[in-house]
Design goal:
Length: 295
């Protein structure tokens, strides 16, 4: 089992939101990447910095309640409560302990954890590991542009997935040390981003920023950014989804500048409630299926 004094740096964010770039930066700042990482791909040649066993476990956890990474709208972590028992928590903890080298703080990252974080929070608590969370924000129009092209998903489905991941990740991390960061901020001034993340979460860097600067500057590849949202770009998706996504995006950006802002949290709670009602009533899937049929 891992040393109880160790820290986990949990990186959350929607698929294609820049979480791999963020994880790569912190790996170069001394946080241990997984022993067995997912292979790089044509659309992410610098690597994902995700543990293959953790990704497989997350896939299986979603499957247990009939969900998948691109169709998890009816997923509720509470539905796993009966399946993720004490024995399952111990099993996941042992797997996580083996997934990272000992004696170092480590980077734990997989977009599926946006909806599965309550499960992993119990696992980390069981291990006595302190978790600090970084929530990555990227303009939803850029995320949609990437996923529509890569996966051929309808724009409304991508918009709804983005909204779902952002809302669940924000909601699940309110009680712990966290920082909300943006992809633009990472590419624009990663040093300022790291300083802010460390200050807001109490994170200690295993490696000095000056020592890692050349490696990080070489790693962050601006040319790999193929999708750029212009200032004031419209939100993707059907009208209702785009409206909710716009409200959530504005609140998250403000919350990044003013952690704990009560008005922003209230807006996110309202959007969460309205979006949950859409998901549960079937209205969301009807919109997605209608767009898919038209396409």
């Amino acid at each position: 089992m891992m040393d109880a004094s160790r820290n986990a740096l949990v990186i959350l964010g929607m698929h294609r939101s820049g979480t791999s770039a963020l994880a790569g930066c912190f790996a170069r700042l001394g946080f241990a990447p997984p022993r067995q990482v997912l292979d790089a791909s044509d659309d992410n040649p610098s690597g994902f910095y995700e543990s293959a066993p953790v990704v497989l476990a997350n896939h299986e956890l979603l499957q247990m309640v009939g969900a998948h990474w691109n169709n998890c709208f009816n997923f509720d972590p509470a539905r796993l409560a009966g399946s993720v028992t004490g024995a399952k928590t111990t099993e996941l903890a042992a797997m996580l302990a083996a997934a990272f080298p000992p004696g170092r703080p480590f980077v734990l990252k997989d977009p599926r954890m946006c909806v599965l974080l309550p499960v992993w929070a119990r696992v980390l608590a069981h291990m006595g590991v302190t978790a600090r969370t970084l929530l990555m924000l990227r303009h939803p129009a850029e995320v949609a542009g990437s996923l529509v092209k890569r996966n051929g998903l309808p724009a409304t489905a991508v918009a709804a997935l983005t909204l779902h991941h952002m809302l669940e990740a924000e909601r699940a991390t309110r009680a712990g040390p966290r920082a909300l960061l943006s992809y633009d901020e990472l590419l624009g001034d990663w040093r300022a981003l790291v300083r802010r993340a460390a200050g807001e979460t109490g994170l200690s860097l295993p490696r000095d920023m000056a020592a890692a600067a050349a490696e990080i500057d070489g790693f962050l590849n601006h040319a790999a950014r193929h999708h750029h949202a212009r200032p004031g770009a419209e939100m993707p998706g059907a009208e209702t989804v785009a409206r909710l996504l716009g409200q959530a995006w504005a609140a998250l950006l403000f919350l990044a500048r003013a952690p704990g802002d009560g008005m922003s949290l209230a807006v996110l709670d309202h959007v969460h409630g309205e979006f949950r009602a859409m998901r549960r009533s079937g209205a969301l899937m009807a919109l997605i299926m209608e767009e898919a049929a038209e396409g």
